[in-house]
Amino acid sequence: MAVNGLAIAIGGLIGLPALHFRGADIGLSAPVGVLIGGLVVGWLHSRRPIFGRVPDAALSLMNSLGLGGFLALVGIGAGAMFVLGL
Prior knowledge:
- There is one protein chain.
- The chain is mainly alpha-helical and 86 residues long.
- It is 72% helix and 7% strand.
- The protein has 3 helices and 2 strands; from the N terminus they run αββαα.
- Strand 1 (19-21) and strand 2 (24-26) form a beta hairpin.
């Protein structure tokens, strides 16, 4: 878990800087940096399965909370239109 958290933090920081070119900011964003960090840890885990291992109970908890949070946010976003439609 610590390796994954560290990869997310480092990836987010890597994605923050941007170059200013003719009035436009060019660079990675924080989500892209986090994605790259996750991909690197996943690749390292495929090479050495002990590296970046997450216990099954933690994976189950993250799946349940992630799905529940996603459904809650979708419901909050659609709630106003549902009430208006009623």
